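Deviation from plan, reported transparently: carboxymethyl coenzyme *A complex.
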Amino acid sequence: MSDADTQTMTIGDKQYPVRHGSVGPAVTDIRKLYAQTGMFTYDPGFTSTASCESTLTYIDGDEGVLLHRGYPIGQLAEQSSFMEVAYLLLNHELPSAAELDKFTYTISRHTMLHEQLAQFYRGFRRDAHPMAIMCGVVGALSAFYHDSTDIADPHQRMIASHRLIAKMPTIAAMAYKYSVGQPFLYPDNSLSYTGNFLRMTFGVPAEPYEVNPVVERALDRIFILHADHEQNASTSTVRLAGSSGANPFACIAAGIACLWGPAHGGANEAALNMLREIGTPDRIPEYIARAKDKNDPFRLMGFGHRVYKNYDPRATVMQKTVREVFDSLGVSDPVFETALQLEEIALKDEYFAEKKLFPNVDFYSGVILSAIGFPTTMFTALFALARTVGWVAQWNEMISDPEQKIGRPRQLYTGPTQRDYVPVGER
Ligand code: CMC
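Because the crystal trials were delayed, the predicted structure below was used instead.
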């Protein structure tokens, strides 16, 4: 029984307080449930569980709304910059012009990696996936930056956050350079955050690199679209790792590991691979049929979402950005046509309509990243780069929360009850 108006939920003969946020579903505070009833709640995948209180990001999945600190993602993507969104997520409010300049300058002062870290890369196989390299190198940062691992000190926490945001483009670009056998490029702090990343990725020491402003703007927008997304799997991983008091670099490495999976950040790579495999629009019905077949594990990658039961607002911006980049670069890719037709056919299909499966952010991101020149293996690394902002903001929020405890879920045990050990010779 629940009655949000009475502000309590009754379970058995006990009442539990209902708490209301500023917007969105209320929660029942069941922290005393086990102590009072001896029962746990059962919620695999946390579909009905609010794990924390947060002021960062709000999603209304039914309406297709995504807000960062109250600002709609569409407005931020169109009018803001990634540095401004990073400031907003970390500091609660949009910056003044002077605050933005100072923040951008501070981030630029942390873009270089400890020189010894370059040695780490040489330990990986040339064909290592960039996400494997990112997990390793980001985890290793704690061995190099001891002066920002005291999580009880807010100043150290902020330095670690700035370092992670600043160094992630350098780490990702070096992972790419290593895979193609080209020399690493040092950061150029006269460029924007995104322009610098493009140069470190696609430039070579032998000649100057011209940042294309259309590509720079498009990639910056992609970073904004990926900056944060409430309590998703990788963010919850960062929070869980951080709840034990682990240092921020280890926590973000844990987030990168979780993001890599094809049901999460790995979906952008999988979506483009799928679109390429489909190849031409005439093969779309075959793949739609496979996605609907219960006996086939195949899923339409870039479709469906745990929270959005409507069009993902990030996919709307992403689709528009593909058109802008293609128009301004004068390029085209048959894969985009396949994507548009696949979307149209799927949205008219009863299966997808009934299950409320719509394109998500990853459906179009691969098309645009590929047009810019990134290989598919870099797609999830770019997601990790951008999501680092959300991860550090959420991690800071958690550490500052007086109600924060170590994360320790319980379980419904269905294994053997107690029995006596039998020596091996008697079994
Ligand atoms: N293609 C075909 N069927 C699907 C798909 C899909 N992409 N997604 C969900 N379904 C079906 C699923 O088979 C299930 O059917 P039934 O009720 O008959 O068993 C129903 O829809 C509900 O799916 P679910 O797996 O229970 O839903 P979920 O909330 O646990 O999963 C998801 C969400 C994103 C993991 C899933 O939709 C999926 O695997 N999508 C493809 C991967 C993808 O694009 N992931 C990127 C997510 S957005 C970026 C990010 O957050 O990282």
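DSSP finds 18 helices and seven strands in the chain. We consider this an acceptable substitute for the interim report.
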